[in-house]
Task: structure prediction
Amino acid sequence: MTRALFVGLSTLDISHAVARYPGEDTKSRALDQFLGAGGPAANAAVACALVTGKQSTLITALGCHPLADLVRHDLTGHNVAVVDATPAGIDKPPISSAVVAMDAQTRTVVGLDATRIQAPCTVELTRYVEQASIVLVDGHHPDLAMGVARRAAEIGVPIVLDAGRWKPVHDRLLPLVDVAICSATFAPPGFDGDSSMLLDYVRSIGPTQAAVTRGPDPILYADRGRHGAVDVTPVTGADTLGAGDILHGAFCAYYSSRSDFVDALTHASAVATRSCRSFGTRNWVDTVDGLPRRHRD
Result:
């Protein structure tokens, strides 16, 4: 049975919603809170499973620390099969703390990424590619990302890159991927250009299809020789935390079933917008039945 395969970072997320940002050296009572799994690949895997109604697979690094069990429990509870590349690891998983200011519709995040974790790629892990309908890598575990991407390229499985911020591994990943969905802040050292220039730059390295997300502004895309934009529906009182991750996961769900880039990007944008209407990265699940059913069979 084929599944969408996600490769990358898992964190333990602790988020608090407040009306406005607290002042320095103060205490504030939160309006709401969230505790669960986070990280680009992890959130995308959850979103894809919710949109398709099918289990997705996540290759990540968790280890056996008690806090990793919280991450694993949340993921498996949302229909994600977790494959741990570092099952004997004893370190705490990366912890990400966020304050979401509902009035300002902004969020501030402080946390660790995967730079302290060594997650090697093995033959056993690359075998998951052979059962994959699509592969997404976020580049946070470079060895895993490269090993899986190379195998996917060898056997013709579509590869999507979640390009949030530039990492050294992107020089090697971009020539392998078919689709790159980038944030507006994704750029190599020394790059000095706008989002349109970034789109052309990314396309020149390898991906045949690419997009640049720009928050509430339209998503710019290049689909082979065609350029255009996908409008983003405005949201009042938005919580944008994890919206990009959710967009990537929803894109994989739609793209793997239809292989139409612009159509998948348009529907994924609608899902990401829906996620912004409620606090946290899971509450939008309550309205998942409103998603286009023709993509969930």
Summary: The chain is about 30% helix and 25% strand. The mean pLDDT is 89. Residues 187 and 193 are 9 Å apart (CA to CA).
